[in-house]
């Protein structure tokens, strides 16, 4: 069973829509859908179904807080509301916009090894263009310019986590942002989700019975009181093979940005 939608039970009559307490700010292709689906296994969490793009799209932001609230799920008192819009992380005005609306927002950022994230990003754009029957560009054309890495390539820039993170930490204290290890979440979701529960001060509830490995999908799928579900087929795609020399170049390139990111956030990740 593969379903893109979040598990929803009928909300009680006294449920209301409210501004989100938790925002998953990115990073694009970090595993944001898996994270929100897994978080919504918790009975004290109500999750928005689709990406809201409130703080990054002017046309939405201009509609104001009432419109934003209208995009939120119905939540009971005591439940935390969460939305995810991965583009927030790399959008320059978003941190200040969020702070102005809710300085106490709890922010979740899921990151993944930067080269792998770049490949995933490229693959997503490739599929989108395929659907729209647009002309494709190879990864190498996009990535290389005059035999050097093209720093203007958006998918490369989005993996420069330290650049984007610095802007968030200019606005929010480090304690407001919890980092989820997207590679660890793929390998074994439970430990990462226990850390998320702890950060959000949620009663420990998510447990091993919520996850099972699906051989066909090659990923963990979810299991709760209501049903079993895997993420949509667009999550967990095959990535293109890259020439080993370019791959080495990328790994070398990301070494210093990664070090800066680790320093900024006060922890490391097990990246190449
Ligand atoms: P790939 O499709 O490149 O493998 P996002 O939801 O932010 O777009 O991230 C998509 C990524 O989530 C997928 O990238 C996949 O690797 C990752 N992911 C993490 N846990 C997953 C799960 N349980 N099922 C499917 N994909 C998962």
Main attributes?
272 residues; alpha/beta; 5-stranded parallel β-sheet; 3-stranded antiparallel β-sheet; 11 helices; globular; disordered N terminus; binds adenosine-3'-5'-diphosphate
In short:
With 272 residues, this protein is α/β, with parallel strands linked by helices. Helix content is 38%, strand content 16%.
How many E strands? Answer: 12
Q: What compounds sit in this structure?
A: adenosine-3'-5'-diphosphate
Q: What is the CA-atom radius of gyration, in angstroms?
A: 19 Å
Structural class: alpha/beta
Strand order of the largest sheet: 3-5-2-6-9
Q: Summarize the main sheet.
A: 5 strands, parallel
Overall pLDDT metric = 94
Task: Point out poorly predicted stretches.
Answer: 1-5
- What share of the residues does DSSP label as strand, in percent? 15-25%
Number of helices: 11
Q: Considering DSSP H and I runs of 4 or more, what fraction of the residues is helical?
A: 25-40%
Provide the succession of SSEs: EEHEHHEEHEHHEEHHEHHEEEH
- Note the overall shape: globular
What is the distance, rounded to the nearest whole angstrom, between the alpha carbons of the first and last residues?
34 Å
Describe this protein's structure.
The chain has 272 residues and is α/β, with parallel strands linked by helices. It has 11 helices and 12 strands. It has helices spanning 32-39, 58-61, 64-70, 94-101, 114-131, 139-143, 154-157, 161-169, 182-187, 189-199, 244-265, and strands at 16-17, 22-26, 45-47, 74-75, 80-84, 106-111, 144-145, 148-149, 177-181, 211-214, 219-223, 228-229. The strands form 4 sheets. The chain has a 5-stranded parallel beta sheet. A 3-stranded antiparallel beta sheet has the order 10-11-12, with no helix packed on it. A hairpin with a 4-residue loop joins strand 11 and strand 12 (228-229). Helix 8 (161-169) packs parallel to helix 11 (244-265). The radius of gyration is 19 Å and the shape is globular. The two termini are 34 Å apart. The model is unreliable at 1-5 (pLDDT under 50). Residues 28-34, 86, 120, 123, 185-186, 219-220, 231, 235-237 line the site of adenosine-3'-5'-diphosphate (A3P).
